[in-house]
Fold each of these.
Amino acid sequence: MSSARLEDVSKDYALGRTQVSALRGVSLAVEPGEFVAVAGPSGSGKSTLLNLVGCLDHPSAGRVVVDGRDVAALDDDALSDLRAQKIGFIFQSFNLIPVLSALENVEFPLLFRGLPRAQSRARAERALDEVGLGDVARHRPDELSGGQRQRVAIARALVTAPVLVLADEPTANLDSKTGEAILDLMLDLNRKQGTTFIFSTHDPKVLVHAQRVLRLADGRLEAAS
Amino acid sequence: MRLLLTLAARNLIRRRRRTLLTASALGFGVAILCLSRAWTAAMATAVVEPAKDGTIGHLQVYRTDAADDEGGEISFVQPHNGYRLIAGPRALVARLLADEPRLAAGLARLSIGALLSAGDESMEVLLLGVDPATRAAVYPAVGVIEGRHFAPGENGLLVNRGVARRLGLKPGDDVVALANAVDGRLTGAKLKVTGTWTVRGLEAYEWGACFVDLAAVQELLDAPDQASVLILRQRDARADAAPVARALNDRFRREGSKLRAFTWEEMGGPFIGGMLVTRFISGILDLVMVVIVAAGVTNTALMSVFERTREIGTVRAMGARRGRVLALFLVEALLLSLLGAAIGTGLGAGLIATFGRVGIPAFSEAQRYSYGGDALYPVLDLPGLFSVAGLMIVICVLAALGPALMAARLRPAEALRHV
Ligand SMILES: Nc1ncnc2c1ncn2[C@@H]1O[C@H](COP(=O)(O)OP(=O)(O)OP(=O)(O)O)[C@@H](O)[C@H]1O
Ligand SMILES: [Mg+2]
C-alpha cells in the first residue's frame, strides 16, 4: 500500500471572477520509506499538492488516497484524526506556537492522542533528543535560532510516529548551510525510522538529497527523473 | 486539557496589556453592576420598608365596590370620603387574624379630607383615622418627633410638620375639624393635638396627613363602626404578600363577602412607583454596561483569532478537530472573564462596603426622598455579588463564541496561507 496516492487530481482556486488552475491532472504514488522532493518554480503548485496529500484541502477533481483511505469519504473530524495519526507537517516558517517551550511544542500533537502525561512528556523528550536539542527543551521559540526552530518542528512532526511527513519548503527560510543540515537530519530520520518524507523546494541545490524528484511546472507533473 | 489551559493562560499573559485592559473593563463593569444592584436594593429597602411599616402595611382589604361612587378605582392615597365602607371592621380584623396564621396584626382605617381650624387659620387636611389600640402593632415605624401618641377615647390628633407650621400648632392645642357626613350634613369635632408624627426611616418626607382616632373620623362621617380599609401586617415582614392576599380573596369569595385584599405592591402608589422607575432605569444602564463589556470581550477574542490564524492552521494540521480550536478560544475567554470577574467582585465589594460605611450622600431634595434620608447605605450581599459575577462570566464566554466559531470554521489550508 502506498503512503499516498493521487489519481488525476486537479485543484482550481476561485480568484475573484477568474479561476486559477493550480494543479491539472496530477497522478503519483509515494511508497513507504521514500524520500521524495517536489520541485518547481514559484506558483507551480507545490504547496497545493502537499496540502492535498496532507488532507488540509479537497481536490476539485480526482482522488486522494492517504494510507489506503480515500480522503473524499471522510468528514472534517475524521480528516483531523487521520492527520493526527498518520501525517506530520514541517513548514517553511516553522510555525511553532510562540507561548510554548520547545518541549511543549513537540508534545503538542500528542495532545490529540490522549496519552498519559508522563508518557507524552517522555516521548517528546526523546523526539527532541533525536534532533539534538535536548538541552534547549525549556526555551521558547523566540530564544532559538532558525535552524533550531526547524529542528523542533521536525521533532514535533515525528513525535507521533506518522507514516508520512510533509515538508513545504523546509529550508527556504534558512541559510544554505543550515538548510543542508536540516535536510541531512530529515534524511537521517528517514533512514533510521523508515518514515516517508515528501518535501518541496524551488532550490535546485537541495534536490541532490532526494531519492526521487517530482518536477512540477504550471500545475503539471513532468516526466519523472 | 492541561496543555489547552496552559496555552490559553500563556496567550493571555503574552498579550498582557490587552488582557489587563479587557479584564479591567470587565471588572469595572461587574463592579458597577454590583454597586447599582446594591444601590437600588438599598433604595427599595430605605423607602419601601419604612413605607410598609408606617403607612401601606403589608396587605389592605377594601370593599370590592369601595370606590364605585368615586370613579371606580380604589386609591390608598386619596381621601376616602364617598367610599363605600366596611361594616364592623374591628370584628372582621379579629376574625381574619384568628384564621390566618401568617398575619400578625391588623387595624381599621378611615381616611377623609377635612377642614382643620385653629384660631383664625384653617386648611384642608387628610385625616387618617386609626384605632389607637392596634396602631403600634401595625405601624411600628410611626413615631412622634414632638409630644406623644394619643390614647383611645382622648380624641387626640397627631399633626405633621407642615400642618403644625401652617396652623402654628404645638402639643396641647385644641383644633376643630369640619367635614361632611355620609348624608352631606356638615359635621365637626373638637380634637386635641398630642404631637407631631413622622415615619422612622422616612424623616425627609413631609407627610400631608394627620393621625386621629378612628372614632373621631367615624363621628365626622356619621358612620359608626365602619372603616374604608383594613391594614394587615404579616408575621414575617419580608415574606411575599401575594400568597396571603390570594388566600384572603379565596376566603372572601367563598363567604360571598364583597371584599378584596391587595398587596402592598398593588397599593404602594408613590413609594413603589419610585422604586420601579429606579429599577427600570438602572436595569437599562446595566444592560448597556453588559453590552459594552461583551463587545469588548468579542473584540479581544476577534483580535486573538486574527493574530493567530496561522497558528490555528498549524494546530489543525497537527490533527486538532474543530471542537478543539473552539475550546481553545473559549477557554481563553473563560480565563479572561474569570480574571475580570475577580477584579470586579473585589472592586464591587470594596465600593459597596465603603459606601455602606460612609453612605451615598443625597445631593438634592428629590434624592433625599428616594433615599428616605440624607444618605443611602448599600448593604454587601455576597451571593448577589457572585451571581452578578457568574452571569457576567457566562455572558463574556458567549460573547467570545462568535470569534471562536469563526476560528473553528477556518479551512486549514487557508489558515496556513495567512501571513
Ligand atoms: N487559496 C488560493 N486562492 C487563490 N489562488 C491560489 C490559492 N492558493 C494558491 N493559489 C494559486 O495557485 C497557484 C499555485 O500555488 P502554490 O502555492 O501551490 O504554488 P507553489 O508552487 O507552492 O509556489 P511557491 O513556491 O511560491 O510557494 C498559484 O498561482 C497561486 O497563486
Ligand atoms: Mg508554496
Amino acid sequence: MSTEQRPYRKVAYYPGCALEGTGHAYNRSTKEVGKALGLKLDEVKNWNCCGAMEVKNIDPKIQTYLSSRVMSIAANEMGHDVVMAPCNGCYHNLKKADYDLKHDDESRQVVDRISSKAGHSTYEAGQVETIHALDWIKEGIGEKELRSRVKNSLKGLKVANYYGCMYTRPRHIFPEKDQGPGSESTSQPHFMDDLLAVAGAENVDFPLKTACCGGAHTLSDSDTSTLLVLNILRAAEAAGADVIATECPTCHSGLEMHQVRAEKKFGYKLEVKILYFTQLLGMALGLSPKTVGVHENVSDSMPMLKQKGIA
Amino acid sequence: MPIHEEHLIRPENLKTQEDLVIDGIDVSGHWSTFIESRVVTDYNEALEEEIAALPGGEYIHRCWQCGSCTNSCTVNEVNPDFNPRYWIYLIRMGMESELLRDKEIIWQCVSCNKCTYACPRDVVPEGVMKATAHWLELKGHTPKSPSMVFDEVFTEQVIQTGKIEEGRIIRSFFKRTGQELMQDWLVEMVKRLVAKLPVTLLWKMGLANVLRPRTSGWAGARDAIQDYVDEKNAEHRKALRLDELVELAKQEAKPGQQMAAE
Ligand code: SF4
Ligand code: SF4
C-alpha cells in the first residue's frame, strides 16, 4: 500500500479537556508527530467534554449525549468519518456512545431529545469511526514507512508500555479488537509496543499493561490510587524499564502524581520515568525534547534521556 | 467438628469456649469452636428491584454467582473485604442489613471494568457497584462519598459550560469535602513542574483559570441536559419510594399534629 492510499491520512481531531490542561504535553507531542509524519488533524469545532469518568456516575445517558455531540459535529458539520481521540477516556466514551446508540433504544431517544432541544443534528450510530492515536499512527503511516523515518533511534532504551483500563475494557465496545493477526488485543495490547519497537526501543516484558492506576479516585481515594500506582511503578522497575510509556493523559498524570505522593507520604522513591509514547516517537523522528514537551512533564526524564544519548 | 476456612466467617459469629464439657464429656480444644447460628428476618424483598432501577444496576438479575468479578477485581486485591460477587448475592437475596455492614467501602470501586471483562453473564458488575453506592446515599445509609462529590462537581461544571478545567474542579472538590487544598504532595508536584516550565506557558495555564474554557453556544444543550437530569432524579426517587419514606418520617416526627388531625 502506498502511503497516500493508507487510511486516516486526514481525520477529525478530538483532544478533549485533559489535553488542554494537565495533558498539554500529550496534545503538543501528538500534533508534532502528526506534522512530522504528514498526517493531518482537523480539530473538532467547538467541542465539549465527553463526560470523562465522572458524568456516567451521575447518569450514563448524559455521557452518551455529550460524546454523541462531538461525533455529530465531526460528521454533520465537518463531513468527517473518522474521529481520532488520543485520550483513553474520550476514546472509550465515544466508542461506548456509538455502541449504546446502536444497541439501545432508550439511549437513542434520550440523545435525540437532548440534541433537538439543544438545536443540533442528532448523531446516528456508525456515522464516524472513533480511533485512538495508536491506530492513527499504526494505520495512517504503517510500520515500514515509520521505520524509514526514524532519525534518532531509541536504541538502548528499555520501555514498559502501559495501556490502562479504558483502552481495552469492556471488550464489547471495541468490536475491531481481538480479530486475529494485525488487530489489537484486549488482553495483551501491543500497538504501542509495535510502534516503539520500530523506533528502536526495547520493550520489556511488563505484566501490568492493562492494570488499573485508580485514576477514577485519584483525589477522592488517594491512598488506594497511590497503592495501585506503586504496583505499576514497581512492576516496571522489576522488569528493568527505564521509562513507562503512556497513551492517556489520565493514566499519565495519575502515575506522575502518585509517584510523587508515594515518595512524600510513604517514603517510596521509584526512579522509573514516565513519558507519553508520542514524546518518545517524536524524539525518534528527530524532534527535540522541547518540541514534544518533555519539560512539561512532572517526571524529569532529561538526565536519563541524555545518558541514553536520545536527548 | 473443626471449622474449615474459618476466615470466611465473621469473627463475631465464631464462639470459642475454653473449657467445655457436654454431657460429661470434655470437648475443649479441637472441638470447642462453634459458628453462631442466626436467623435472618429483615429481608427487603424490593432490594434487587431498587438497585436495578438505578443506572448501572439493570442487569443484576443475570448473575449466576461464578465469582469471576471478585476474582479479577482491582480493589479486592487491595482490600479482600471488597467483594462484588457477595454484594450481588446479598442484594438478590434481599439481605439489606448484611449489605449495610460493607456500606463504607462499596463506593471505592475504581471503574476499571475488569469485572465486566470477566463476567460471563454480562451483568456489568461495575455498574452494579455504582448503582449500589448511589442507592446507599439516596437511602441515607451513607453520606455522600468523596467520589460522588467529585462526580457532582465535575458534572455540574460540564453541564454549565460544556468543558472542564481541572484546576477549578480540584479546588471545588477540596472545598466541598472540607480538605486542605495545599496537600504537601500536590505542592511538591507543582514545584517540580514549575521548576522546568517556561514563563509563557505558566501564564497560559494561569489564564485558563480566569478565562474559563467553555463551549460556545452551549446554553441550549445545558438547559436540555438539566431538564433530563431533573426528570431522572424524580424517577429514581419514585423507584426507591423516597418520598413515601420522607412522608413517613415527617408523620413520625409530629405525632401531636397527627392526633389533632384525627
Ligand atoms: S462475574 Fe458476573 S455472573 Fe459471575 S458472580 Fe460476578 S456478576 Fe455474577
Ligand atoms: S470495576 Fe470496580 S468492581 Fe469491577 S473490578 Fe474494577 S474495582 Fe472491582
Amino acid sequence: MAVYENLVETFVELIRRASTQLPDDVVSALEKGKAEEQKTGLAEKALGTILENVELARSISAPICQDTGTPVVWIHHPVGVSTRALAAQFHEAVRTATERKFLRPNAVDTLTGRNTGTGAGRGIPFLHFEEWDEPRVEVRMILKGGGSENVGAQYKLPDSRLKAGRDLEGVRRAVLDAVFEAQGKGCAPGVLGVCVGGDRVSAFEMSKRQLLRPIVDTNPIPELAELEERLLREGNQLGVGPMGFGGKTTLLAVKIGVLDRLPACYFVTVTYMCWADRKAAVSIDEGGEVTWLS
Amino acid sequence: MAELKLPVSEEEIRKLKVGDFVELSGRMITGRDTAHHWLMQDVREDVMPYMKDTVIYHCGPVVAKNDDGSYDFVAAGPTTSIREEPYQADVIGRYGLRGVIGKGGMGAKTLAGLAEHGAVYLHAIGGAAQVLARAIPKVERVFMLDEFGVPEAMWVIEVDRFPVVVSMDSHGGSLHDEVEGESKRRLEELLK
Ligand code: SF4
C-alpha cells in the first residue's frame, strides 16, 4: 500500500513531538504535585524548575532532556502492510531526527564502546508490530530515558526478604520496595509501568506498554484499579519527593498490566519512567490522512 | 535564595548546609567518567587553574559550534554522579575543587572527602536540560575535546544563576542519607 511507503517525515514529526513536548496529562500531574508541596520548599522548587524546563523546551522545539532515551514503539497495521517497510522507515526517521537534534546520538556499540553516531543501533529503536482489523496504521511511541531505566526491577515471588507471597499483596510489597530502592535516582517523580505475571521478556514489554495509558484513567480490572490507586498513595507516603529531595510527590501514576504465567513463575516487573514521561502517537489512514493522537 | 560566586573560598563553602538552595555564578568546569579517570592518572597541570576553588559539573552536554569557532551549550542537564565515586574524593583533594555538581548523590568516600577538603555536593535538577543550558551563557575553552569527544571533554564554562541544592555538605551531612533513612522507616511501616 503506497500510502504506507512514504512515512519517514511523519515519523520524524512523531519523534520531534515526543522529545520536545511533554504531554498535557503529564504536565497537569506535575502541576498538581507542585501545588501540593510546601511553598518555597526544595520539592516545590524542583517541580517549578521542571515545569519551566518543559515550557522552554516546547517553545524552542528542543529536547526536554538531553538523554533522549530509547524510542520504544508499538505499531498496529492492517493486513497486507509490510512491517519490514515500516521498520526501515522508522529507522530512517530516527537517523533524520538525530541529525536534526531532536534526538541525541544515543546508541553505543556495546563491544567497542563507540557511539554509532546515528541514534540507531542494534535493538534501537525497539519496534513491536501487531496486525489489526482497522483500515489504518497507528503508531505509539515512548522515549525511555536511561537513568530511570537503571532503576527498573524484576521480582520473583515468593520473596522472603519482603515477605511477599504470590498474590496481589505480594505484588504491592515488591512495588513499594522498588520505589524505595529507586529513591530519586530515576529523576523522580516517576510513572510506574508494572506487569504482574508473564516471563522475563514478555513482562518487561508489558510493563512498558502500560506507559502508553493516560496518567489519569481507570484500569478495567477492578482489583488492579484498586491496587494502582493504593500504590500511588503509598508510594507517595514514602516521602522520597522530586529528585529525592524529600516531599509528597514521588510518583505521578502507577499502571499495572497482567499476563498469564507458568506454574513455576510469578514475576513482578517494574519499569520506572522519569518525570520526562515522553510519549506521542499518530494514526495514518488508507487515504494517507494523518491524525495526531497526542 | 543565596547566590554563590565562583571561584569560592573554603570558608564560604563550609557555611553551606544540607538543604540550602543556591544559585551559582562564575566559572566552572565539566567532567565525567573519562575525565575523572584521566585526572587521577597524572597531575594535569594545564587544567589545574580551572579547577582550583571552583566546582566540577558531571554533565555530558549537547554542544553547537558557531561559525566563528566558539561553542554554545544546547542541552546541559546533570548525569548520574555515583559512577565517579572511586575517584571523586581524590580529584577534589588533588585539584583543590570546592564542589561537585551532579545528580543522585554520592557515597561515603566522597562524603568524607568533602569534610576533609572543604567541599560540597550540589544536586542539579535531573532532566532540566534547557533551563540549565540557559544558565550557561558562555563556553570559555575546552580540554581534551578530540581525545574524549563532546560529552566527555572538559568544558570551561561561565554560569549565571545556575540553580542547585546542597545535598551533601562539608560537615558530614547528606540529604540522600536523611531521605533514604526516613523513607526506609515509612516503608517498614507500610509493610508491617
Ligand atoms: S532519567 Fe529521564 S529526566 Fe532524568 S536524565 Fe534520564 S531521561 Fe532525563
